[in-house]
Amino acid sequence: MSTTHVKLSPLGQEEVSTVHGLLTRARDRGQFDATPPPQRVRNLLASPDSAARVVRTDEGRVTGFVSAGPLGLVGPPLARTTFVEVVADHRETEDALFEWAQAAANPGTVLRTLRGSGSAEPQGFAKTREFWRMDASALEEPVPQRDDLTLHAYPTAAADETAWITIINEAFAEHWGGYVPWTPQRWRDRLETDLGGGPQLLVLRDGEPAGVLLSRIVELDDDGARPTGFIEVVATHPAHRRAGIAEYLVRTTLTRFAAAGVTRAVLLVDSTSESRSAAVYRRCGFEPTFTYDVWERQASEHR
């Protein structure tokens, strides 16, 4: 089925709630580990380079959603990449929406979509890697102190925002697919969102900024709506790798989640990362609970 047989209409910020049921049905089919929150959809729509459409029945029910742009519903932004999100109740509608996304994508970019491993293969895409969602229980026992490490919570006089941003950017400079560096504006924008009391931690090693962990406390609907600690960023400066910085930050965060009454923590990790992040998280008690397949194809050179 081509897009000429699918009636598409724009999706505005005021209509975000209309796609929630569609996303929840997709979660039930295994496309997502949890229903993407409305704020994630709003962020996607707010991007000036994003385009989004929905498919409606004659009665107004939304049966399909498609977007193409620098942001997706899962994972961070990447350079030279157009994230494609397609959610539909029927496979023939899904195929038509992928066709629309191909036409709407920025020429010369890589189209990328993340879908649960049990989801249908998007036509024309090739699988490139896997992402894992990993879960762990919060820790109540204290983390052993280290004489060479000093822990600080944001904000702190020990380091300004530039130090936090520098650690993150240096840590991920060679990240797969074209890492998009953090900017002061992106840092401030994140702090203005609802972090739910999640810890934002920086660790100094022998007085030098060595690692950063960013988190938030959210409600996920995969196991009933309950508070969950979501670890968003774990970054170790290259000069301090293989020194247990990431493990120290993660374990400390798990104890802080427990102190806040949160019993579960989750994170997303590239299962093939050369930094061996998944092994670090396993040592902290995390285990894979959901697999996202990463699918890619080249966008057309011309629109």
TrEMBL record:
<keyword id="KW-0808">Transferase</keyword>
<dbReference type="Pfam" id="PF00583">
    <property type="entry name" value="Acetyltransf_1"/>
</dbReference>
<dbReference type="InterPro" id="IPR000182">
    <property type="entry name" value="GNAT_dom"/>
</dbReference>
<dbReference type="InterPro" id="IPR050832">
    <property type="entry name" value="Bact_Acetyltransf"/>
</dbReference>
<feature type="domain" description="N-acetyltransferase">
    <location>
        <begin position="149"/>
        <end position="303"/>
    </location>
</feature>
<protein>
    <submittedName>
        <fullName>GNAT family N-acetyltransferase</fullName>
    </submittedName>
</protein>
<keyword id="KW-0012">Acyltransferase</keyword>
<dbReference type="InterPro" id="IPR016181">
    <property type="entry name" value="Acyl_CoA_acyltransferase"/>
</dbReference>
<dbReference type="GO" id="GO:0016747">
    <property type="term" value="F:acyltransferase activity, transferring groups other than amino-acyl groups"/>
</dbReference>
